[in-house]
Amino acid sequence: MGNSAVVVGAGIGGLAAALGLRHTGWEVTVVDRAPVRDDAGAGISLAANGLRALDALGVGPAVRAAARGQYTGGTRTPDGSWLARMDGTALERALGTPIVGIPRATLHRLLRAALPTEALIVGAEVTGLDRSAPGRVRVHIRTRADASASTHGGTHLDADLVVAADGVHSRTRAALFPGHPGPVHSGSTVLRALTRRPLDLPTDFEITWGHGAEFGHIAFADGRAEWHAVLNSPAGIRHTDPLGEVRRRFSGWHDPIPALLDTTHAEDVLHHDIHELATPLPSFVAGRVALLGDAAHAMTPNLGQGACQALEDAVVLAAALAREPDTDTALGSYDAQRRPRAQAVALAARKAGRMGQQLSGRAAVAVRNTALRLAPSGATVRMILRHADWTPPALPARPSGAPLVK
After folding, report:
1. Rounded Cα gap, residues 304 and 80, in angstroms
2. Residue 362 near residue 315 (C-beta atoms within 8 A)
3. Which of 42, 80, 258, 373 is the most buried if burial means most Cβ atoms within 10 Å?
């Protein structure tokens, strides 16, 4: 088996894949277009499956130390009444951990810190893959220094494996599967930001559903919080004053929503349309290229499973490559294990969005709210368990003396 890999994309999934591959003795180079990772304004929740994957990669303790457990919270209506409460203690009893909240930038920093600096090439764009040589892939890249070079200029990396972790709008996926329709707009858009200072929040995590709108927050260990506002909206709509638009749209909604907005600076608000791979890919593998994370199964955020599924991908890929007799067999095993599960979670997330945040009709919202209020105790925990109760495959220890960085 070869032991050199190029990972395209230094997001959560790409960095996790690099950690997993290095853990099992592969030489890894991570290539990312951005000169500096910038995730200000974004927070993330990690369920047990994501945390277990991070444990397998060796960074779980550091992530837990920087995160805040989500023990209290749930789902509310705009007037503040509860539709369902989340019992983080029950989740901890069932899974060994509650869901945790952490700034996305902090998670990125912890993953990067576990890699040697020389393993990461930033500000470099992958311009093409040459898969003509059996068992090898030549990755053509263009850096800022050679931006004037031709598309397939002289800068390249040769590898036994390429991991495409270049996100929902993956150029690698588009090149490998030209007949696939690619990502589509989900019908929703999200505005979000981090508060500039700590707040005394009554809960660790909340989601509030109105008519075609959702407002939520995640509290962090330092007392700050991320808030997000999700709206039914056509793609491409932008506002000259995004924070003012959120204030207008959620005027009159319950506390602590006004306080969250009052501790936000207008320049910190991010606005992104939500896209997903509504048409499942026929494979997560094409030759010696494995797709991972949003490049393979971009999903709506309604179950909070996007990053967790990418972390699962990373561990399963590394374990398969360590266990199977050759790379091609390992990639087949990775696809067989990950594609059914990840695509099922993506479908469940889409359905959750349609039955939750995206409902806008008065009668439909009333039926939804009544159903949630009448749901038996523990229903929320059981729903979370359905996706979060996952055990990662064991990763063998790195072979003694094996090279780590290319």
Report:
1. 22
2. no
3. 42
pLDDT digits 0-9 by tens, 217-264: 999 999 999 999 999 999 999 999 999 999 999 999 999 999 999 999
Q: Which residues contact 265 (CB under 8 A, 6 or more apart)?
A: 193, 196, 243
3-state secondary structure of 247: helix
Q: Average pLDDT, stretch 290-306?
A: 97
The whole-model pTM stands at 0.94
Q: Domain segments of the chain: what residues?
A: 4-70+99-183+277-354
Helix boundaries (H) for 298-361: 306-323, 327-355
Instruction: Please report, for residues 82, 230, 266, the alpha-carbon distance to residue 196 in angstroms, rounded to integers and kept in the order given.
Output: 28, 21, 11
Nearest-angstrom CA–CA distance, 114 and 56: 13
The amino acid that residue 19 corresponds to is L
- Distances in Å between the alpha carbon of 340 and those of 110, 347, 390? 29, 11, 14
CA distance 43 to 100: 11
pLDDT per residue over 31-86, tens digit each? 999 886 666 678 999 999 999 999 999 999 999 999 999 999 999 999 999 999 98
* Buried-exposed string 149-186: b where 16+ CB fall within 10 A, e elsewhere: eeeeeebbbebbbbbbbbbbebbbbeebbeeeebbeeb
Give the pLDDT mean for 167-195.
97
Cis link prior to 256 (omega < 30° from 0)?
A: yes
Q: What tens digit of pLDDT does each residue of 355-366 get?
A: 888 999 999 999
Structure tokens at 41: 């304004």
Which CATH architecture describes the domain 4-70+99-183+277-354? Answer: 3-Layer(bba) Sandwich (3.50)
Average pLDDT, stretch 130-143?
A: 94
Question: Burial code of 197-209, b = ≥16 C-beta within 10 A, e = fewer?
Answer: eebebebbbbbbb
Rounded to whole angstroms, the Cα distance separating 233 from 148 reads 39
Element (H, E) at 7: strand 4-8
